[in-house]
């Protein structure tokens, strides 16, 4: 029997600084090239979602995750134009705040005001949910 076809598993990281700015990456590649997104990506075979979140955060921003807290699971079939993905989103306490763009990030920024900013995927919803958790 062959394995069932299922959504791809991804992770997203919400890192908030003391002034409630959220760490975002400007995407270097499609989809949503040039738009801001949360650091994150695909979980690799043999990797936990927690380890994937830490790895993706480090690869894209050079920030070490100290602790992870679950924000939620995001699984709308149309959340990613490449196909059905299911994302586990984490609120991350970081060891450092010195972010540098890496991997598939064109740039990094701490963003406090999201008005008028194009945000990729369903990341605006994830950010809202995370900020509501820490209020």
Question: Can you put this structure into words, describing what you see?
Answer:
This protein has 135 residues and is an alpha+beta fold. The chain has a single domain (8-134), classed as Nucleoside Triphosphate Pyrophosphohydrolase (Alpha-Beta Complex). Helices cover 19% and strands 34% of the residues. The strands form two sheets. A four-stranded mixed beta sheet has the order 4-1-6-5, with helices on both faces. A three-stranded antiparallel beta sheet has the order 3-2-7, with no helix packed on it. A hairpin with an 8-residue loop joins strand 2 and strand 3. It starts with 7 loop residues before the first strand and ends with a helix. The mean pLDDT is 95.
Task: Describe what is shown at a glance.
With 135 residues, this protein is an alpha+beta fold. 19% of the residues lie in helices and 34% in strands. The N and C termini lie far apart (48 Å).
What's the structural blueprint in terms of helices and strands?
Elements: E1 8-15, E2 22-27, E3 36-37, E4 40-42, H1 49-61, E5 65-74, E6 85-94, E7 105-111, H2 123-134
Parallel strand pairs: 1-6
Antiparallel strand pairs: 1-4, 2-3, 2-7, 5-6
């Amino acid at each position: 029997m062959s394995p069932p076809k299922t959504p791809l598993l991804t992770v997203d990281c919400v890192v908030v600084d003391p002034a409630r700015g959220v760490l975002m990456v400007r995407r270097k590649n499609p989809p949503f090239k040039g738009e801001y997104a949360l650091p994150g990506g695909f979980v690799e075979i043999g990797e936990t979602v927690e380890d994937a979140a830490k790895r993706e955060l480090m690869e894209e921003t050079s920030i070490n995750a100290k602790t992870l807290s679950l924000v939620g699971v995001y699984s709308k079939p149309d959340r990613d134009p490449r196909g059905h993905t299911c994302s586990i989103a984490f609120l991350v306490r970081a060891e450092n705040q010195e972010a540098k763009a890496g991997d598939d990030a064109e740039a990094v920024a701490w963003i406090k005001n999201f008005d008028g900013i194009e945000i990729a995927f369903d990341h605006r919803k994830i950010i809202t949910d995370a900020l509501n958790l820490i209020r």
